[in-house]
Every structure is written in C-alpha cells, then in structure tokens.
Amino acid sequence: MKSLRALAGVLTGWSERSGEPRRQVGVLPVRPGPDGALQVMLITSRETRRWVIPKGWPMKGLKNYEAAAREAYEEAGLIGRVGRRALGSYFYQKRLKSRDTVLCQVQVFRLEVRKQLKTWPEQHEREGRWFSVPEAAEAVTEPGLAALIRAAGAERAKSRKAKVKVSAGKVPAGKIPAGKAPDDPTP
Q1: pLDDT in single tens digits along all 187 residues of the chain
Q2: What CATH architecture applies to the domain 17-160?
Q3: Which residue from 31, 23, 26, 45 is spatially nearest to 140, judged by alpha carbons?
C-alpha cells in the first residue's frame, strides 16, 4: 500500500505531509512599452484558459531561474535575460489531468524580454498578450501573483524617477531638495 501511495505522489504531486505545497518555478516576462511604462506578458493556461505566467516544475540539472526561463521559451516563445534572484513567490491550486488539485508554490523570476520567437513548442496551445501592469494584475486570479505584478510595476516606476538627469551641476526644475536654495552649489 505504501508503494502505491509513493507512486501516486510521483504521478500527481500529492504528498502525505499535509500542507506542504509542490514547488514550481516561473517568470514574470516584462518589457518597456512604447511610452516607457512596464508591460507584462501573460499567457493562457491550457486547461482553464485563465491568464497566468509561464511556469512549470523544476528541472533536473538546471538552476530554478534557468528552468523558469526554459518554461518562458516553451510556453510563450520568449527569449531574454532572467534574474537569478526570485522576485517572490505565490500559491495556487493546480488542476491535474486526473481532475485532482494540488497546492503549488511558484518561485517567480523576472525575465527582461528581448524577443518573441516566430515558433515555439506550445504555440498552438496557449494565447499570449502584453498587458500594462494594472491590467495584468487585474487579469490574473491569484492574489499573490497580482501583488508580485504590482510590486514589479512600482519598482520600475521608482527606478525611472531615480534616473532624472542632472547636468552641469544643476538640478532639474521641480527637483530642488527641501531646505535648499535653487542656486546653492552644495550637495
């Protein structure tokens, strides 16, 4: 009986240890839009057709971020630079082919998309679309994934503000630090 349970665990991801989620890896595919604002690509899941990110099981011989990048290629034809540090993780209920569900925790890595290939393995099984950050956060059903998307958008906005150019020692209009005179040369 125990070996049957072990086989069931291998096939379905079920674990006798209650409450222990199965681990998955995924990417948050991003690019700058025409206006410079961050865009996020979402793809549809094969079974329920809901909006998700490219994700899958860890792969033997690959680091988690490498496996996540492989999923982006297989599921959406995306090529780019993947971050080695996870942005965070979220939980969801994965429906298995047996119609059972298993709790999964997805470790998410940022993928700066450089291009989308013309053909890829799951091209005819999924739909992909670029969204603005607010649209992407609204389109997904998992609250944890929506929070990761919003955080990535907020981080992008913060880094764009930090890139205000200062030339010849002058501070751009409206950017004078509190308590400083406009012509004060001290930092």
Answers
A1: 444 344 444 444 445 455 689 999 999 999 999 999 999 999 999 888 999 999 999 999 999 999 999 999 999 999 999 999 999 999 999 988 888 889 999 999 999 999 999 999 999 999 999 999 999 999 999 999 999 999 998 876 555 544 444 434 444 444 444 444 444 444 4
A2: Alpha-Beta Complex (3.90)
A3: 45
Partners of 81 in the β-ladder:
112
Say if residues 100 and 14 touch (Cβ distance below 8 Å).
yes
CB 78 within 8 A of CB 70: no
What is the reported pTM?
Answer: 0.74
165 in Cβ contact with 78 (< 8 Å): no
Ramachandran region of residue 61, left (φ > 0), alpha (ψ -120 to 50) or beta?
left
Reported residue count of the chain is 187
CB atoms within 10 A of CB 130: 16
What amino acid is encoded at 119 in this protein? Answer: T
CB under 8 Å to 84, separation ≥6 — which residues?
63, 65, 109
How far apart, in whole angstroms, are the C-alpha atoms of residue 141 and residue 93? 11
DSSP 47-84: TT--EE-SEE---TTS-HHHHHHHHHHHHH-EEEEEEE
Q: Is the dihedral of CA 82, 70, 121, 135 positive or negative?
A: negative
